[in-house]
Structures are given as C-alpha cells and as structure tokens.
Specification:
heterotrimer; A: 9-stranded mixed beta sheet; 7 helices; 13 strands; globular; B: 7-stranded parallel beta sheet; 5-stranded parallel beta sheet; elongated
C-alpha cells in the first residue's frame, strides 16, 4: 500500500504562549518554536505501521516555505522513506480549498492508495482532508482512530461523540483524517533527523505540479482571515459572596449562562 | 438576501438534538432576513415526528426518509445535498463529528466557501460574511471573512450560539424522500462500538467538574458525583486524587495527566498548581471553589467562591436539580 | 613428616590401582571446567568494549577493600558476617583442596613452602576455618531454608524460587568440609602421634574414629577422599552454571569496578562526542550491546537481593527490581550461549521481551542499588544504555516525548520562554541585585540555576534565597539568564544522549563566554552534570558548601530559630550524597543555626537515603506504583521524630511537598530547602 501523508509545520501550541502581534495582522512570531502538527504525527506513525504490516511505501508531503524541510525530515526520521516539499511564493495566502488544490496536484503526480492527514491543525479548521477527497473524488472519513487493511478495502473506526467508535468499511483509494490516540507515535530525536539529513527531498512549485496558479493563493481564496484578536479575559476571578444558598443560586445562573449544564 | 439558508438537523435515537436550535440561532444571527430551511435526514417512523417538531421553529422542513439514511453517513449525505440544494445555498452544520465529516467536501462539491467551527458572528456586508473563529487551541481568536457569492457551508461550534426559542417558525414539512432513493457510497457504515463504561475520555468533554485534595476524604467524592450528574458533566481531578486511587488515572488533568479543552471547568478544592493548570487548555470558563482565598486557582478562574465544599456542594446540587 | 599408614594414592580396589582414577578425576574436572569457562568468556568477547585496565593502584586497593576485606558486607550485619566467615574460610580451604587433589595420586604432597612451621600453622588455620565455615553453613541453611528472609523471594512472574540452588550449594560445601575432616581425622586416628587442632571438625573425627582398626580407617580415608574429590570437581563445574559463579568472578568484578562516581558511561567506549553521529546504533538493543563488564556483572550476581531491598522503585512496587536485571541478564546469556551446543539466536527482543519498557523507565538512577552491591555490580549504566536503545528506536512514552521536545526547542522541559528564565531574579528583594550575563554583566562566580529552579513558581524561592545568601557571603555572582539551558542531567540519564550533547554544548559555550572562575549551583542534578558529565568548566560547588564555609569563617551569621520546639531532619539528595559523597556540608550548614534540633533518619540517611521519587524527566514519567516514594520518605522522617524535612534539591522539595499533601500531613510535616532555611535565619 502506497501512502501519502500530508503534514503541516505549525507553532507548537504546547510550547508557545500565543499572543497577537500589534495590529492583529498576525500572531506574535518572535520567540515562537515550530513543530509538526500533533495530529500529523499520529498520521505518519499510522502510515508507517500499516506499511510495516502490509508492505508499500510512505511519502510525507508538506506545503509552505523552505523551513518546512525540518518538519519533513523529522517525519522521515520516524520511518517514511520519501519526502516531498511543495514550495512556491504563489501558494502563500491560500485558503483551505487552495491548500487542498495544491495537494491534489501533488497526489496526481504520484500514485497512492491511501492519503492520510491529521484531523486538524493549528487553525482548528479540520478541512483540508475532506476537501482533498472531494477534489480527487475519493471517499473520505474523518477522525479515524483505527485502520485495518482488508484487501482493497479498509475497516476503519471513527471517533464519535462520547468516546464511542463508529466502524466503517471504505474503498481505496481514499482519504482519511487521523485522530490523536490512534497509536503512540515514536520518538524522534536530533539523532534521527541527522540520519536522514542527506536524503534528497524533491521540491515542486506550481509549474512542476502543472497547477494553474490562478486556482491558488489569496486571489482565489473565498475565505480569508481579517485579523487576530484576544478574547477579553478578566484578571483574576470575580469573587462571589453571600450565604451558601445565595452562592449556589448565583453559581446555577452562571453555569447555565456559560453552557455548564448539559 | 434572496439566498436560501439551510440547517442540517442533528438527531440521535429518534430525538432532535439541542444543537438544532443553536443552528437556528446562528442562522438568525447571521442572516436575520432568511427563513431557514431545516434538513431532516433519516429513516423510520420517528423521522416524521422529528420533522414536525422542527417545523415549529423553522420556515420549512425538507424531510428525507430512506433506509440508507438510518445512520448519518456523510458519504451518502453529501451527494444527496449536492443534488437537492439550490445554487448559492448557505448551509449550516453543527461542528460535530458529522459536520467535520461532511462539511469540507460538501463545500467543494457545491463550489461554496467553507467556514468551519464558527463561534461568533461579526457582520454581514453584501456578500461578505464576517465570523469569529478560534485558533491555536483557543489561545487567540480570529475574524474570518468569506465570500458568499457562491454560497457557503458553515459549521457552528456547540454552545457558541445560545439555542433559539422554539415555536417561532411554523413551517411545513416537505417530503423529499424520493430524491434520496438509490444512494450509494464507497464508504459503508457497519456499527457503533459504545465506549466502555468507566472508560471516559475527559479530553473531549465540554463540561468538567474537577476535584482536588480539598475534597478531604474519599467518601466526599459522592457529593462531587451528585453535582456532576445534576450538571450532566464529567468528573475529573488533580493528581493527589489519582495518587490516592480515588479516581482512575484517565481522569487526571495536568501536565502529567490529560490535557482537556472544556468550555466550562468547575474546579472544586483544587489549589491550581501550574502542573494542573498546564493540562487545562482552550480558554474555558473556569469557576473555582476553594476554602483558601489565596489559592492560585483564583488567578486562573473567571469566577471564584471561597467556601467549604461540604456545605456548598449539596446546596448547589439541590438547586440545580430543582431548576431543570 | 611421619610415615603415612595409608593413602588414596596407594589404594587398590578389585585389583585396580585407584591412583589412575584420582588422576583422571582432576584432569577431567579441569578440562570440563576450562571448557565451561571458555564458553562463558565467549559472549564477553562479543560484547561492547570497555577499557577497565587503568588506574591499577586504585583497582588494587578496591580488591583489597571490597573483595578481600568484604567491606560492604556488614551493611547487612548477620548475612554479612556469615559471608565473611564463609569467604575467608574458602580462601584458606582452597589451598587444602588443592593439596588434596595431588594426594590422590602422590602418597605425599606438600605445597611448596608448607613443609615447615608455615605448614603447621596452616593446618591449624584450615581446621578452624573448616569448622567455622561449617557452623556458618548450618546457620545459612537455616536462614535460607527455614527463616527465608523476604529479600530472597522470587515473584511468581519472574520464575522459580532460588532456594533449592542455594541449599544444594550449602550441602556441597558441608560435604566438602565433612569429607575433608573425615579424611584428616582418619589419618590422625591411625597415626595417633599427632593430635588434631582442638575443637575442630578434624578433632571431632579423630575422637570419633579412635580405636577403629586400621583397615576400617583406611576405608574411611579412601571413601572420604573420593567424596571430597568428586564433590570438589562437581562443585567447580557447577559454579559457572548459576549464581555461585560469583565465587570465581567476584574478584574480577571488583577489580574492574567503575571508579568515577556520578557519571554515566559514554554511548560507546572509544567513540568521543564528535564521533557519535557515525554510530549505526545507540545503546543496548541486543545482549551483545552490553559491555563485557556488564555481562560479567550478570555472571557475578550472587542473588543476595540487597540491591532490590534498597531500591526505592522496588519498594513502592514499580515494575523494577535491580536484582532481576542481573538474573534475567544472566539467564539470557546462559540461554543464548549454552555450555554445550551451538549459540542460540535471539528468541525474543531484549526490550519488550526480556526487559519491559516500564521496568527500565522506572529507575530514578538514585544509585542505592550500586551503593549496596557487595561486589560492585553496575545498574545505572545498564539502565541508561537500555534507555538509549529505546530512544534510538523511538520507544519513548508519550509522557516523556513532550518534555524532551520542549527541551530540544526551548531548553527547558515545559517549553517556557527562554527570555523568562531569569524572571525569578526580580523577586530577590530590595537591596539585592542579580547580575545577568545576558545583559553583559560579569562576575567571578556563576550561579547555574537550572530549569526547575528558574521556572517553577515554588522553586524560584530557592533561587531567590540562594541569591541572598551569596550576597551576604560576599560572593560576586551572576546568572546566565536566557543563555542558560537545562543542564541535561536527566536528559542524559533518560537515554537522549544527542539532546544532552546539544544542551551541554550550548551551556559550555555560554559558561566559558561568561568568563566565570567558579560555578555555584543549588540543584544537585545541575551540580552533578556540570561537575561530572561536562568537561573543561571552572570548578563547580554546591551552595551548601558555600554556606558551610560561610558559617565556619563567620561571614554568614545566623539568628536562633524563632520556634525551637520543632525537630529537623536532613534528607540527602541522591546526586549530592551517594553520587558525590557530599554528606557533611549541608549538615554543618543546618547545625550552624543556633538552637536547632536535628535528628537523623537512622538506617536511611547518608548513603542509604531513600530517594524522593526522582527529578527532571522523572517528574513527567508516570510509573505504575502502589505508593509514592516521597510518601515513604516523609513517613521515615516522621518516624525519626522530625516535623521539618530539610533538603537541598528542588526536585526533592517538590516531591516532599507533594508527598506531605498526599499523606494528609499538611500542618504536621513541612519540607524546606536548605537555602530557604538558612536565608530565613540570616543576620543582615
């Protein structure tokens, strides 16, 4: 099974205090450290485990500027033998559909039975996998937390509300977005990255992808971010006072107001 | 605006989810002039009842009653909606596991803009809709603008729009089951494996009642359980409670436990060490109850109460139960 | 020498002279034993290199002290003394057994030099030795067979009880002793011109056999000789098959003991830090990846159980018992390299098969096991090497991956911002200024704070107290600020060598650039890292040394305690005490406070201090355990009559404070850092 995994380089939300830059045009990028999107790590691990069981190959693709190389190498160090970088100034400012369009072009350049993406990334949109599937006209399933290969089809589990699992059968080729917890991604340290430091990674731009540049970038985007802002938050808690009964009454009202009553 | 607004009605076990009214509320906030159409998909006799129930609040209800729709398989629903929806339709979905499954591809097939996980509305100017989204696990918010000229698919975060009042629609039910005949997909639903009892995943819960050492003794946990039940919430805890083996490790919030992203976090007897707060993400509304007025949790909370848990919890539970 | 009445060398049975048999037995026995030794050495030759033939003087002293003088044995008094008797008896009796072998085919044989008074003295010595050993064997058999101390038991999942093997060997020793005594006694009874050394086994035999006719005595003599000869070679060939191999290997194990405390072994001996990138594989993934010394450790383990008895992880029922690292390692080596037959391929993976991941992550590297082992078996290096293997294969628990990734990106395990590293300095107080190298300040002394003390709200108080103490002690000091990275102490011990190397390089560069002439730390882990893991830095001291010197010279003067009713105890941090031998400076510092009452946690202080639960990445790892180590420690302090636990390590303090909460002892027990205690009493 030949698998393509789409990964994204993101500011690591666990190791950054994200704040809004002056004017709100962007988050404050100074002092940020970057990592591979957490969900994508699970997707790469899953791909590697499938290939370890079933044979085939894993290719990791990322889209962005030159600095995505570190992310691609990190995922290759996990055990993906091939990498692919999609780099072109004209890609910047693409919306979700634009990103999916670029990835579609990359998919069509190769030959894959399965495409994995993380369920979501830093913007929490959870959109690119489903869009890519629609562009390719392949079946799609999101929030996948189990994959079992049964010949030409896959038996998959989706994580649904309440922690239950929805079992499906899906035909290949298909696109799956991977939920965290599907596996335990292996650790990659500095040593692993150095081991793959000299592996050649092809870099494709829109021309190499045979992509009409008008379909991507800000001009083609139907959706754009206007600005970032910080939701107003109080300094310290507002302290409630009163008798036990009064306190309880105030709390019940607050909880209702804030959606604390299910 | 002449465009039609649609809302896909979420339901389970023959009952309409509350989220349906949140979609209605979101539709009214964004497109006040439109009379939204409810899309009710499913199978069996209960569907008609649900369609009628929804009709009370929506301008119109399109009902699709087909065996194949007995379970909401996005791969079946997507082509169906592409077939029946008019050009330029504005489709509202809950940002649920179904919405995430269905929305992105639907927007592509409709040629429409996609606005996922919307938490607020910030204006409609001609064809330009401005909404509020959250990024970086809720650490910052963003205004996002979409071009609606070819329609839009919008998924709405649960709880972001308070449910609209019912009974203001008075629309009629249109049976469109015929359009849903002969649907096939390359993905087939097989079964749902229910989560094992006791195997809770606090990381996905929206309302958490967290208990810490301040609860004192194991027996007092019953008070917390009662409160959580009254709220419909899930109980989680800080490390000392797990160490004492009063609760499972799976319920521990913190850097050495789970990272949770609830909407509402009620912290009971939790001092608020950063190891604990490190597991609390996504900008939740934190209510802290603690005996110690200097507990650091009050810095992290929006609302604080200095009180004895043993006194306050039974009263709070009683009032909650009364108010339901 | 008088004419001997009979001799095994003269014996003839059914017309056959037994001389040839008694020549054949040792020849066959030695041949068999040599073959076995060669087989046992085979895996050592395939194992990883480890140059241990250095520092011959130091190693000779170790052999004299730890091996010959059995220095560590009396730490367990009863078993220790019995073992010393057994050991010294063995040394004495070994010569006698050697002589006896020759007596089987030579009527008279005396060891060179033993013809005169030395021989007479030796006979007396060996007779008493045999008797003493016999008595010890009886007591030991009673302990092993009847009393059965808990530390010898074998958990069901780890195989069969080892009592049978122990009793078999004790029986063999008794047989050797009794047969030798009967041999001697029969000769004496026949000769009657000599008397045996009084109150010995031989003496008893002489009396027992007195008056028996000569042919009977000859038969007794021959039979006991044959029993001794066969038992001896049976025993010899039994040694390389089980835990009694230590009888032979312990000498070498001690001679090749690790000399430098505090450090961990390099990834591969002979490969320097720059060459690490060239290595195909890191750490131990297969048996042969262990060093030859570590395989020798496996052979040498006598299964005495002291390591596990003192292991805090074992105590709180984490899935680790150091004793079984050795036993499982030995069994695997024996299975893979059998005495007879071809070498076996690996049947199951070393990690995940022989050893479990949880087992290897459970160790806090406190060093209690190594401190206790009477023959110098190493555990920390093995654990670290196994972890290196796991890290190289990506087998790292998710709970550790996050802090490791943060350390790589931010230089601290929480991913906090670099620029906030010196934020603690703002809280030192009015009248105090902390110089920062990041701002271009210079000073003679560099205070290396490390991550925990820099970022943790509670532990920042240690940094602030340290700054005030250093100021009062008139130390011209600075901190690095944002250029300081985590010392990497635990990073290295959790097996992430390359990340450690990267942190080490960054810190080394920053420290050298600061031009400081000495380094002070308040964190024993940082202290140990800079002192023992790093190279080429200025001298490193722990702040307790600064305090001890300050109170001695009078630069630091301390006020009496406000509340003299409380009793204090000092908890030795592992990386200050066991790993660096610094036991006294912190105690001097505490005792300098007028009116302070300090008690020791007798039996678990100094080199026997019970680990608090571990530091660094240990705070992030979530082991299965029945109890927290810190709770055990707090209860030990309580039992000693203390209500305040003074420690000198931010991790100890965190664990103790947590443990006090968990144990529900808030208000009754308190934990405080040495610096905070001293700072509170400083005369300004």
């Amino acid at each position: 099974m030949d698998i393509l995994v789409c990964v994204k380089r993101v500011p690591d939300s666990a190791e950054n205090e994200i704040s809004v830059a002056a004017g709100g045009a962007d988050i404050s990028r100074e002092d940020l450290v970057y990592a591979v999107n957490e969900w994508d790590n699970y997707a790469v691990e899953e791909a590697i485990q499938i290939v370890e069981r079933e044979g085939g190959s894993v290719t990791v693709v990322a889209l962005g500027e030159a600095d995505i190389e570190e992310s691609v190498r990190r995922e290759m160090a996990m055990g993906a033998e091939q990498g692919l970088m999609l780099v072109d100034d004209r890609f910047a400012g693409s919306d979700g559909l634009g990103v999916a369009t670029i990835l579609q072009a990359a998919v069509l350049k190769g030959s894959y039975d399965l495409i994995l993406t993380g369920a979501q990334a830093d913007d929490g949109a959870a959109q690119v996998g489903g869009m890519l599937a629609a562009l390719l006209d392949w079946p799609f399933a999101s929030l996948v937390n189990r994959i079992e290969v049964t010949g030409k089809t896959l038996r998959i589990g989706r994580e649904i509300e309440g922690g239950s699992q929805e079992l499906n059968e899906i035909e290949t080729p298909c696109v799956l977005s991977i939920q965290t917890g599907i596996n335990e991604p292996r650790y990659v340290g500095l040593r692993g990255i150095r081991k793959v430091a000299s592996v050649e990674i092809p870099v494709l731009d829109s021309a190499a992808l045979g992509l009409d540049a008008a379909r991507v970038g800000p001009a083609a985007a139907k959706v754009r971010r206007v600005d970032y802002f910080v939701p107003v938050a109080g300094v310290g808690a507002e302290m409630l006072t009163g008798s036990t009964k009064e306190l309880a009454t105030q709390l019940v009202e607050l909880l209702k107001l804030k959606g604390g009553i299910n | 605006m002449a465009t039609q607004v649609f809302a896909l009605i979420p339901h389970s076990a023959g009952k309409v989810d509350d989220a349906a009214l949140e979609l209605l509320s979101a539709a009214r906030a964004m497109f006040p002039e439109a009379a939204p159409t409810a899309l009710v998909l499913g199978s069996g006799p209960s569907l008609a009842d649900m369609a009628l129930e929804v009709a009370a609040s929506f301008g119109e209800v399109w009902s699709f009653n087909q065996e194949a729709l007995a379970y909401p398989n996005a791969e079946l629903i997507r082509p169906l909606l592409v077939k029946v929806l008019p050009a330029g339709a504005l489709v509202l979905l809950p940002h649920s596991t179904l919405g995430i499954d269905l929305g992105p591809g639907l927007s592509v097939k409709l040629g429409a803009a996609y606005l996922p996980d919307v938490v607020g509305f910030d204006g409609l100017n001609g064809n330009q809709l401005k909404v509020v989204r959250q990024e970086f696990a809720g650490q910052v918010s963003a205004h996002v603008q979409a071009d609606l000229s070819n329609g839009a698919v919008i998924t709405v975060r649960s709880g972001a729009f308070p449910p609209a009042l019912t009974g203001s629609g008075g629309g009629q039910v249109v049976d469109k089951s015929g359009a849903a005949a002969g649907l096939t997909a390359r993905r087939r639903f097989l079964a749902v494996v229910q989560a094992e009892a006791g195997d809770v995943d606090i990381t996905r819960e929206e309302v958490l009642v967290a208990v810490g050492r301040g609860i004192g003794e194991q027996d007092n946990l019953a008070l917390v359980d009662d409160l959580a039940k009254a709220m419909g919430a899930t109980v989680c805890c800080s490390r000392p409670i797990v160490d004492a083996k009063w609760l499972d490790k799976g319920r521990q919030v913190g850097t050495s436990g789970q990272t949770v992203k609830p909407k509402v976090y009620l912290a009971l007897g939790i001092s608020g060490a950063f190891q604990h707060l490190g597991g609390l993400k996504g900008n939740p509304f934190v209510v802290a109850i603690n005996k110690n007025p200097k507990a650091p949790i009050f810095q992290a909370a929006q609302v604080g109460v200095v009180a004895d848990l043993l006194e306050l919890l039974p009263e709070l539970t009683a009032q909650l139960e009364k108010s339901r | 020498m008088a004419l001997i009445p009979f001799s095994p060398a003269q014996a003839v049975v059914v017309g056959l002279p037994l001389r040839w048999l008694f020549l054949l037995i040792p020849v066959a026995g030695v041949a068999c034993f040599t073959w076995m030794l060669a087989r046992r050495v085979a895996p050592l030759l395939k194992a990883a290199p480890d140059p241990r033939c250095d520092h011959l003087g130091e190693r000779t002293l170790l052999v004299l002290k730890v091996w010959l003088a059995q220095w560590r044995h009396p730490r367990y008094l009863m078993a220790g003394v019995l073992h010393i008797v057994l050991f010294l008896g063995f040394l004495v009796l070994g010569l006698r057994s050697f002589q006896l072998i020759f007596l089987g085919f030579m009527e008279t044989f005396t060891l060179p030099g033993f013809g005169g008074p030395l021989g007479v003295a030796y006979t007396i010595a060996k007779d008493y030795a045999a008797t003493a050993v016999f008595l010890s064997v009886v007591v030991l058999a009673y302990r092993r067979g009847i009393v059965r101390p808990a530390r010898y038991s074998v958990p069901a999942k780890l195989g069969q009880d080892h009592t049978g093997e122990a009793l078999l060997v004790l029986g063999l020793i008794a047989t050797l002793l009794l047969s030798e005594s009967a041999f001697e006694g029969s000769l004496l009874a026949a000769g009657s011109h000599e008397t045996a050394t009084p109150f010995t086994l031989a003496w008893a035999c002489q009396y027992l056999f007195a008056g028996l006719p000569l042919p009977v005595l000859a038969r007794i003599n021959l039979t006991s000789y044959a029993i001794h000869d066969l038992s001896f070679f049976y025993f010899l060939c039994l040694l390389p098959m089980g835990k009694h191999f230590h009888v032979l290997t312990s000498l070498f194990n001690v001679a090749f003991m690790r000399l430098k405390p505090g450090t961990v072994k390099p990834v591969r001996h002979g490969v320097d830090d720059q060459g690490l990138d060239e290595l195909q594989s890191f750490g131990v993934k297969h048996l042969e990846d262990f060093t030859w010394k570590h395989l020798l450790d496996f052979y040498s383990c006598a299964d005495c159980g002291r390591c596990s008895d003192r292991c805090p992880a074992n105590h709180v029922k984490r899935p680790l018992s150091p004793r079984f690292i050795s036993i499982k390692g030995r069994d695997l080596t024996y299975q893979r390299y059998p005495l007879f037959g071809a070498d076996q391929a690996e049947a199951e993976p070393l990690m995940g098969g022989i050893f479990s991941e949880e087992e290897i992550w459970s160790c806090t590297t406190c060093g209690a096991c190594e401190e206790e082992c009477p023959i110098g078996i190493e555990y920390i290096d093995k654990i670290v090497d196994l972890r290196r293997g796991m890290v190289d294969e990506g087998m790292v628990p998710q709970s550790l991956q996050k802090p490791l990734s943060a350390l790589e990106k931010r230089g601290n395990p929480w991913g906090k911002l670099e620029k906030k590293r010196a934020d603690w300095a703002a809280g030192v107080g009015e009248g105090f200024a902390v110089k920062l190298a990041e701002k271009g300040d210079t000073a003679d002394t560099l205070y290396f704070v490390d991550s925990m003390t820099s970022y943790d709200d509670r532990m920042q108080k240690i940094a602030q107290a340290t700054a005030r103490i250093l100021t009062r002690a008139e130390v011209d000091f600075m901190a690095l600020g944002k250029d300081e990275k985590d010392s990497g102490h635990e990073v290295r011990r959790y097996g992430e060598e390359m990340l450690f190397q990267s942190l080490k390089e960054q810190n080394t560069e920053a420290i050298l650039e600061s031009q400081a002439k000495r380094i002070v730390t308040s964190d024993p882990h940082a202290y140990n890292a800079l002192k023992n893991d790093y190279a080429g830095l200025p001298p490193v001291v722990h702040v307790s040394e600064v305090i001890a010197a300050g109170v001695t010279t009078g630069k630091l003067r301390l006020n009496p305690l406000a509340d003299p009713s409380r009793t204090y105890t000092y908890h030795d941090p592992c990386y200050l005490g066991r790993h660096n031998g610094m036991y006294d400076a912190p105690r001097v510092a505490i005792d300098a406070i007028p009116g302070i009452k300090r008690v020791e946690m007798t039996g678990s202080c100094r080199d026997r201090a019970f680990c608090c639960g571990g530091g660094g990445l240990g705070l992030f790892y979530e082991p299965e355990e029945e109890q927290r180590m810190g709770v055990v420690r707090v209860n030990q302090a309580r039992a000693a009559g203390a209500s305040v636990i003074v420690t000198a390590c931010p991790f100890c303090l965190t664990n103790m404070e947590d443990a006090i909460k968990v144990a529900g002892l808030e208000g009754q027990m308190e934990a405080i850092d040495l610096c905070e205690l001293v700072d509170g009493q400083l005369q300004h």
